[in-house]
């Protein structure tokens, strides 16, 4: 593993406390809420044109629920400036542009309702460091943050608190610490101080230690289909890890995700199911054949004997899907008869 370039050593307490104090002053001096055109709001851009991570944790159902609640309050003429929002979004003015610090999901919900404006507090003279702190703190304080966003928010918080160059440097150092604690590598004196500082950050966050968090980093490499299912709360993080380790083919992933929508499986049950599914796959399966061969193949696999051997829960699931297929066939048949 390449050597990690030692970072500038600083006191975490001083860094975070100074930013908290600076945030309090900025918010105290900027309390005016104004309506801002949504189209004028840009993403938060840091040094070297780097865009900061957005929280993407709202599932589609939660976003729709938020939009519905906002719409209801707006019709009643309540909420900030009659918009239905209970809290304004936070923006900063930089180089003549308005950049969003936080409030992405509120903006998305308003856009779903067809709204063109959002109530906002516009902050002046907010540094990149303070903007990063305000967003990562806001994310970490949420109870409904999913595993993916929680992991990125913690990485950004460590980057800020310990003055790492970027998130990749944080990940590299955490992996080096893991190897150090396993007796596989060593740390120089500056890295030992940095190790202490990073450990202090985890202690303040109160959710992980370094080793357990390093294992969590695999969530950042999830297949997009698995990641979206995790965001939509269709699967747990533990199930996502099973899918990541056992499935590579998008079609296989989609098939298992569809199953999990209708059937609850523990992690061990999911592992066994996937293993059995792979064993039952034969060389005769028409993977690369045309759609007619595939339909014929799969219909023959579901014999009465196979069906009768299934559990009642599996039978109910298959019955449901067969009714959907029947409707599709009826639609196709109507087209043929024409």
UniProtKB/TrEMBL annotation:
SMART domains: ParB. InterPro entries: Chromosome_partition/occlusion (IPR050336), HTH_ParB/Spo0J (IPR041468), ParB/Sulfiredoxin_sf (IPR036086), ParB_N (IPR003115). One of its GO terms (biological process) is chromosome segregation. Transmembrane segments: none annotated. This is Partitioning protein, ParB family. The keyword DNA-binding does not apply. It comes from the Bacteria. GO terms for cellular component: chromosome. Residues 34-140 form the ParB-like N-terminal domain. PANTHER family: CHROMOSOME-PARTITIONING PROTEIN PARB-RELATED.
């Amino acid at each position: 593993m390449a050597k990690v370039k030692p970072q500038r050593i600083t006191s975490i307490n001083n860094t975070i406390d100074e930013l908290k104090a600076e945030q309090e002053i900025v918010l105290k001096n900027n309390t005016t809420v104004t309506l801002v055109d949504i189209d004028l709001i840009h993403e938060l851009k840091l040094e070297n044109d780097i865009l900061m991570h957005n929280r993407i944790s709202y599932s589609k159902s939660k976003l729709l629920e938020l939009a519905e609640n906002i719409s209801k309050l707006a019709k009643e003429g309540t909420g900030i400036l009659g918009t239905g929002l209970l809290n304004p979004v936070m923006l900063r003015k930089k180089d003549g542009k308005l950049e969003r610090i936080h409030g992405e999901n509120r903006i998305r919900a308003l856009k779903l309702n067809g709204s063109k404006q959002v109530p906002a507090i516009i902050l002046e003279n907010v540094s990149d460091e303070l903007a990063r702190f305000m967003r990562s703190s806001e994310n970490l304080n949420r109870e409904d943050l999913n595993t993916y966003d929680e992991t990125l928010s913690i990485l950004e918080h460590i980057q800020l608190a310990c003055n790492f160059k970027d998130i990749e440097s944080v990940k590299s150092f955490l992996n080096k610490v893991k190897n150090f604690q396993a007796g596989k590598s060593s740390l120089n004196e500056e890295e030992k101080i940095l190790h202490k500082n990073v450990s202090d950050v985890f202690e303040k966050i109160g959710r992980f230690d370094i080793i357990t968090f390093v294992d969590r980093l695999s969530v950042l490499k999830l297949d997009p289909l698995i990641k979206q299912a995790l965001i939509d709360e269709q699967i747990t993080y533990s199930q996502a890890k099973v899918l990541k380790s056992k499935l590579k083919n998008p079609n296989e992933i989609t098939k298992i995700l569809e199953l999990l929508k209708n059937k609850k499986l523990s992690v061990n049950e999911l592992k066994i199911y996937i293993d059995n599914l792979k064993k039952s796959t034969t060389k005769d399966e028409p993977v690369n054949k045309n759609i007619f061969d595939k339909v014929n193949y799969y219909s023959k696999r579901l014999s009465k004997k196979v069906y009768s051997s299934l559990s009642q829960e599996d039978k109910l699931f298959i019955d449901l899907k067969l009714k959907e297929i029947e409707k599709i066939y009826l639609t196709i048949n109507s087209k043929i008869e024409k």
